[in-house]
Amino acid sequence: MEERYLSLAEACEVLGKSERTLYRWIKSGKLKAYKPGRDYEIPESAIQEMRERSEVYPKVQAPLSFSRWLEERCGHSYLTLSEEELIQRFGDLEGFEDAANKKRDLFTAVQAEYVATIKTRRLPPEERVLVRGHHLEAVGKWLLAQTLSGQAEGITEAFEQSVKEAIEAAVDETA
């Protein structure tokens, strides 16, 4: 039996999506379509596949938040705290017998997050945009944590080198 083909407008109506969405799906290979002339023709079987897939997969994924992004990579999200909350975290460590070690550990965690925000070369575009949007704020919080932890003088050469490399990579990406 010969397969029936729908126009792009008909496919949009059946799937309840915009033409822009269907163009994007066609370009990415998610939706099979043919373009024998000027207009796309979409096989009915491809439309049926999309309908079945949409029942299995959610239509819209929640946008990635900076906090969730950091938690996925670092296990926490100190850089999403306000400066006051960050100051409070370091302040809460005063009075402990090993306060200096605890502050250093907290700074190490903040530093790991900061490094994650500057190493964006291999990130998908949507994550790169998300991270770069928060990067300037992250720099300020990293410097604040560095001062509060007493690590301002104790930054190791290895870390300085990793920051330098990450910044160079970021500059290369924008060029």
Summarize the structure in words:
The protein is mainly alpha-helical and 175 residues long. It has two domains: 5-56; 66-174, no CATH class. 64% of the residues lie in helices and 3% in strands. It is built from eight helices and two strands; from the N terminus they run βααβαααααα. A two-stranded antiparallel ribbon has the order 1-2. Helix 5 packs across helix 7 and helix 6 (99-118) runs antiparallel to helix 7. The chain is elongated, with a radius of gyration of 25 Å. The termini are far apart.
Please bin the fraction of helical residues: 55-70%
What is the rounded Rg? 25 Å
Beta-strand residue percentage: under 5%
Number of strands: 2
Helix-and-strand structural type: mainly alpha
For the sheet with most strands, the description reads: 2 strands, antiparallel
User: What number is the mean pLDDT?
Assistant: 81
Q: Gap between N and C termini, in Å?
A: 54 Å
**What characteristic shape results from the CA principal axes?**
elongated
Contiguous low-pLDDT stretches (5 residues minimum) are 55-59
Please give the order of strands in the largest beta sheet. Answer: 1-2
Order of helices and strands: EHHEHHHHHH
